[in-house]
Write a structure and sequence with these properties.
Strand content: under 5%
Number of helices: 13
Structural class: mainly alpha
Distance between the termini: 53 Å
Helix content: over 70%
Oligomer: single chain
Largest sheet: 2 strands, antiparallel
Strand order of the largest sheet: 1-2
Length: 385
Amino acid sequence: MVQYMTDASTIDRIEGLDRESNLHRVYNASVRKKMTFITIMVIALVIAFILSVALGTVDIPFTDTVKAILYNIYPDPSLMPSESYYVKFIYARSGRSFLCILTGVSLAIAGTIMQGVLRNPLVSPFTLGVSSAASFGAAMGIVFWPFLFGSTVTSYTVLGSVMTDQDIFMVIMAFIFSLLSVFFVLLMARRTAMSRSTVILSGVIISYFFQAGVSFAKYVSDDESLRDITNWLLGGMWKASMGVDFIVFPIVAICSIYLMYLSPKINVLAAGDDVAQSLGIDVNKLRDKVLIVSTLMSSVCLAFTGIIGFIGLMAPHICRMIIGNDTRFLVPASALMGSLILLVSDTVGRIIMRPEELPVGIIMYVLGGIFFVWMMLRKKKEVVM
């Protein structure tokens, strides 16, 4: 009898080790899949960046583009392209392409994190009213700058690019009102027992209020301010420069690293607030911190680019379908996907009507509409099956 029990316990241990080994293999295979996808996205983004710099009103050969980019980084005479003026040309275009990447990163990460902490796949800076609030803040900065500070605008040269104190004021105003929009959404949602529909509805309501404010700003503005507001609302990279990148990059980088650091805790939130609190996580404090940081990084970019919609919805959804819901991998994957989508869209906008330019915001509205039609049809097909 003793021998039988010993054999039975040995068999149980062996089966347990086999199950553990299988789990390790499945987990390692899942990690390899995620890392492979991220590596492919990095390669695709590098190629898209080079093409974005090469294509425009005047196309530059691919090899000369690569040489000029390397020459701007390390001015070795052997890296000089066939035409010397390509160097300055590439430098100017690179500022725009970098801003596309930074904006794509900020909106995609913000959308991913907001969806994680609010447990709602339809949440993004666009649907929470952050974009509308940023547009209102920027419009106020454009219209009321002369009344607050006079008609004098001081210019600053940053990395060879000219910026004004009015641009900085617009960034501050965009962030303040974006933060107010998230505060009001959370306040309304908590008072009505936060649910998926409540969060989205709160964002829509807040958006309407800020859109009314933008309409008022357009009504009381002069011709020049009205033109600036209209161009800003279309969404584009007209203000792009290395100087703008110099301001935006550290904010986006610091916020992205911080949100990546919090991604394991955001993973726990997927199991519910009660589970997270039982593990020692202050859910409300975590949610508030994450939403404030996400709003900061998205509003800073939107203040320079105008309204860029659907990146925060499309990028996380696409990556989630490929690599799953693990926020630790979903955040960098979504950042790369958002950058790639926006960079390719901006490149298409520059060449589809050249020498004129189609605002990238218009292209994103079209892509977003197509994407959601596809999502609805896909969901309907799954329900039928």
